[in-house]
Specification:
Elements lengths: L1 H9 L19 E5 L2 E4 H25 L15 H21 L9 H8 L6 H17 L9 H12 L10 H8 L3 H20 L1 E3 L8 E6 L4 E6 L27
Antiparallel strand pairs: 1-2, 1-3, 4-5
Helix pairs in contact: 1-5, 3-5, 3-8, 4-5, 6-7
Length: about 260
C-alpha cells in the first residue's frame, strides 16, 4: 500500500513552538501568529466543527444502514482544537522551510487514503490538512541529515506514542531503545524539529496560551495500522539537535526508516 510505504519513510515529525521572543502580536481572538500569518480562533473553530459534523453524519449513516443507534460518545470524533492548531502552525512553518530550501513537496498521499485511518471523512478540511502536513513533512524529512539518537529524543517520542495507548507505558530507556531498533524515525523527528523550531524563531511565532505548548502532528506505522499522536514542545534541553537545515535536493538520499 502506497500510504504505508510513505509512512515508513516519514515515520514521525517533531516541532517545539511555545512563544518566540520578538513577536509583539497578541490578541485574545487569535490562536497563533507565524510571522505575518494569523490564525484566528474562528478559523480553528470552523475546522474543528466541520470535522465533528462530517464525522457525526458519517457515523449516523453507517449506523442507520446497520439498524443501530449510535451513542453520543460514538458520534464524537477524536479531534480537538489543539490538534487543529498543531496542524496549522506546523504546515505554515514547514512551507516556509521548504520554500527557503527549495524542497519540492510531493503529493503521494490523498485525503481518501488517510480517511480510514483518521476516521474522518476525506471531505473534511481536517483530513485535507493532515494530508498536506504528511506530504510536506515527508518531503522535508527526506532532505534532512539524521540527528543524534539521544536518550532524551528516544524517550520523548516514546512517551508521546505511549500516551495514545499504542505501546505500553513504564518502559525504561534500554527497553525503549531495543523496541525502536535503529531509531531512524526518532533521528528524523529530531532533525525536523530543529529545522522548524529555528524557522519559528526566525519569523517570530506567538501562540495563544490556550494552545501552548504546540505539538507537531505525528504518525507512525505499527505495520498494521497508523498511530496518530502529538509530540509536545521540546526545548533546547530536549531532543532538539544542532542539525537544522535540509540538504540541497539534488544528489542527496533520504534516511532509511526501519
Amino acid at each position: 500500500m502506497r500510504v504505508r510505504r510513505l509512512i515508513a519513510a516519514a515515520s514521525v515529525a517533531a516541532i517545539g513552538v511555545l512563544s518566540v521572543a520578538g513577536c509583539g502580536n497578541a490578541s485574545p481572538d487569535v490562536a497563533a501568529y507565524v510571522g505575518d500569518t494569523r490564525y484566528s480562533l474562528d478559523r480553528v473553530d470552523d475546522i474543528y466543527d466541520d470535522a465533528q459534523s462530517r464525522f457525526t453524519e458519517a457515523v449516523r449513516q453507517e449506523a442507520q444502514q446497520a439498524g443501530q443507534t449510535p451513542t453520543p460518545e460514538q458520534l464524537r470524533a477524536d479531534v480537538t482544537r489543539q490538534d487543529v492548531v498543531d496542524l496549522l502552525v506546523s504546515i505554515e512553518l514547514g512551507n516556509r522551510v521548504a520554500q527557503a530550501q527549495g524542497v519540492q513537496v510531493t503529493d503521494d498521499v490523498s485525503p481518501e487514503q488517510l480517511a480510514g485511518q483518521l476516521r474522518i471523512p476525506p471531505t473534511a478540511e481536517y483530513a485535507k490538512l493532515w494530508t498536506r502536513w504528511l506530504n510536506l513533512s515527508t518531503s522535508l524529512g527526506a532532505q534532512l541529515p539524521p540527528a543524534q539518537l539521544s536518550d532524551d529524543s528516544v524517550m520523548a517520542v516514546y512517551r508521546a506514542i505511549a500516551k495514545t495507548g499504542a505501546i505500553p507505558t513504564g518502559l525504561g530507556v534500554a527497553e525503549v531503545r531495543q523496541a525502536f531498533g535503529e531509531g531512524t524515525f526518532v533521528r528524523q523527528a529530531s532533525a525536523l524539529s530543529t529545522a522548524l523550531t529555528e524557522e519559528a524563531d526566525k519569523v517570530g511565532t506567538t501562540v495563544n496560551p490556550r494552545f501552548r505548548p504546540v505539538g507537531v502532528p505525528s504518525v507512525v506505522s505499527t505495520g498494521q495500522s497508523l498511530v496518530f499522536y502529538s509530540l509536545p514542545y521540546i526545548d533546547a534541553a530536549g531532543p532538539v539537535t544542532d542539525i537544522s537545515s535540509p540538504r540541497p535536493a539534488a544528489g542527496d538520499s533520504a534516511p532509511v526508516a526501519p
